Structures
1.
Amino acid sequence: MTTSAPNQQPAPTTQGDAPVINVGVLGARGRMGTEVVKAVNDADDLELVAMVDEGDWLFGLADAGTQVVVDFTRPDVVMDNIRFCIDNNIHCVVGTTGFDESRLATIAEWLAPKPEVGVIIAPNFGIGALLLMKFAQEAARFFPSVEVIELHHPNKVDAPSGTAVRTARLIAEARRAAGMPPAPDATSEGLAGARGADVDGVPVHAVRLAGLVAHQEVLMGTSGETLTLRHDSYDRASFMPGVLLAVREIGGRPGLTVGIEHLLGL
Ligand SMILES: NC(=O)C1=CN([C@@H]2O[C@H](COP(=O)(O)OP(=O)(O)OC[C@H]3O[C@@H](n4cnc5c(N)ncnc54)[C@H](O)[C@@H]3O)[C@@H](O)[C@H]2O)C=CC1
Ligand SMILES: O=C(O)C1=N[C@H](C(=O)O)C[C@H](O)C1
């Protein structure tokens, strides 16, 4: 691990002729953090310089010469982490959930005086999940009815998932753009929550089940037919190509980027 003075971008090391990116992982002992540590260690062009988890000193990131932080922590701590990274000129690839418009606006304000720093907030790094969102957006205008079901492991801290919220919002935007009225629904809820959470007019249902990792279905319906789109992450390795892509690209993408679909040309 290398060290450098805080508040300065460290000089990159090299792997052959290619510069090596110094990576720090926040939430390094968690389910996703552990997988990121493995993926970074396996990549020739990346060097793991800092592993930080709850109770560790954030300044360790700057002291180790971190150029890009990957954050998989918790919604209640992630904003402080991002603030620290921006203040210390460290690019930030964030997979942690819990971002609404107000949080995104705050990050944009923090970034304003730091035009060279990049923050990528990605609700999902899985290629299949991103394609599902894209297909759902495409299909939305053809189906008056739509519901989202997300299914996850029971240790997940939040509900609904960040991916489900993003998917529902993208579908709602596509419906509005097509001038569609709200989805038909004559049901009155006998028990609160029976129809799921309302995200921008789209019902979102959250299932928590032992044995699952991360899964999502979008159900669409019209007269006499339905369309079901489903994505399954069976292993957290599924998120790693997207995470590494963001780590490699963020240096060339200053400012705030939401989602990695543009990095993939989607
Ligand atoms: N964008 C994506 O593709 C994905 C996002 N996620 C999201 O990532 C987040 C983490 O998920 P998991 O790894 O399953 O959770 P986890 O609970 O296994 O890991 C979180 C880790 O963060 C640590 N932590 C807590 N506070 C911290 C702090 N202040 N500084 C540093 N570390 C701290 C915890 O000790 C723990 O080790 C969740 O918000 C989850 O929804 C999960 C999978 C994929
Ligand atoms: O906590 C998880 O596991 C996941 N979180 C993200 C989310 O909330 O969308 C991404 C993926 O669904 C796995």
Note: Residues 26-27, 29-33, 52-54, 72-75, 77, 95-97, 122-125, 162, 239 surround NAI (ligand 1) (CB under 6 Å).
2.
Amino acid sequence: MAPIRSTTRSPAVSIYKHDAALDASVGKDGIDYTRVNLLRNTAVAKLYEDALRYEPGTSISSAGALVTSSGKKTGRSPRDKRIVDEETTTEDIWWGPVNTKLSEHAFLINHERAVDYLNTRERLYVFDGFAGWDPKYRLKIRVVCARAYHSLFMHNMLIRPTEEELKTYGEPDFTILNAGAFPANRYTTGMTSSTSVSINFKLRQMVILGTEYAGEMKKGVFTIMHYLMPKAGVLSLHSSANQGLQGDTSLFFGLSGTGKTTLSADPARALIGDDEHVWTDTGVFNIEGGCYAKTIDLSAEKEPEIFGAIRFGSVLENVVFDEDTRIVDYSDKSLTENTRCAYPIEYIPNALIPCIGKHPKNIVMLTCDAQGVLPPVSKLTSAQAMYHFISGYTSKMAGTEDGVVEPEATFSACFGQPFLVLHPTQYATMLAQKIGEHKADVWLINTGWNGGAYGTGKRIALKYSRAIVDAIHNGELKKAEYVTYPIFGLEIPKAVTGVPAEVLNPATAWQGTPQTFNATVSKLAALFNKNFAKYADQATEDVIAAGPKL
Ligand SMILES: Nc1ncnc2c1ncn2[C@@H]1O[C@H](COP(=O)(O)OP(=O)(O)OP(=O)(O)O)[C@@H](O)[C@H]1O
Ligand SMILES: O=C([O-])CC(=O)C(=O)O
Ligand SMILES: [Ca+2]
Ligand SMILES: [Mn+2]
């Protein structure tokens, strides 16, 4: 089935007309919608002009993208994220490692601070969009912000309403107030810095203070969906998704920087989405209307679809360019290693619009192992799939989170712990049920180090990871011969077309001594076991047994 394009969607570069009557209301959120210079669903060209005129550090790249600066914060601030503890959330939320309680009163102080800041700006931008391509589950998300850059970012990342949908939009389901240029008051109870990202599920509002990193907004929407979707009986996932010509869907799970965006952009397959999906009783839908690609070391040769998506309308963050030519130097890490580009999904040539696919046939769990001891690919049993989903082992890549400067081993439950709202086992239970019901094959792909750990080995070549993904899709791997990888008990294929055989087995790929290899395997296995101990009382025997054996 060839990708279908709907004609009802608005063009990726919108040309909305202003509708004064619709804007003339004061919302419950404290924002004065009757004010002058309220720019609602503003045309992309106008957002460009405003960003260039009013926001220092803004330029146009040689390709036509809007080059912006997110200021001091160039990655998310997970330690400053809060969820309001109130009667609707107190029993539900997985309080602890990622979800920190905030009182209703403290939220109101943050909220008032944001509202006062936003209402006193010269100009205020409002973008009304949708999260979720399936009309049954979609949420109306309003983004109110003071920077044209932020409005353009969410114009690209949310699903853009048609003129008709905008006319009948009504009240939003959730509002994001982004006052990121203005700090939180550090003396507000519960604040530990001048950065604050807080979500109030009862009031259906999110408030951002003290960070202008735009990723907070898109991951705020994801956090909201990670709470509301499981409550609605469907499974939200930190994954990309694409579809083959026969309509076979693949999901790619993975923490930040593991390759969801890179590997889902595949010329042979239609892109459903690059980062956030929901698996329902009828298939998989994308939450977003755009993609947010890492651009560090980006090249037209290695990642042509993404490179080509960087053009008029795209938002390019924290990159360095040549003063004369305006050509971006994607190898420049001087501002951050987490350079990014946000573009509408239609900018990827074979995007599937509407972004809804069938039930997944293949599920790929991406890990970026900086120890260099996990195989480039292995086939997982259903117990192993659960074990690895709950473990979520990978390395945090430099820059995506504040303070991370080199790959750091981490266990991020469900391959997206920073965005989980409920306990990991709730998502895992739903996933196990869905994999069983739809008989999906599950694969673990290490897109990280090979031949040695970070510092001695090197990251596995993208062309090898792509060849592995191709071998999954064309059925080669399902039929391959396997050997069992000791300790981890993973099944490694003996051969994959396009990948040297010695690379496939970490033991033969290892450039150091067998002693250092064995020690590294044991060290990583011990880390897995230590991490999984905290889930042992909630996991079944076969899942516990699917972990490494020392
Ligand atoms: N073997 C490989 N496979 C995949 N990506 C690789 C590989 N080697 C290097 N890379 C690079 O790693 C990065 C993967 O980032 P990508 O944007 O795909 O992450 P992501 O999983 O989408 O993360 P996020 O959730 O933060 O958006 C890209 O910069 C890509 O060029
Ligand atoms: O949130 C971001 O900055 C980018 C992203 O997708 C992630 O980290 O998973
Ligand atoms: Ca991505
Ligand atoms: Mn992500």
Note: The chain is about 25% helix and 25% strand.
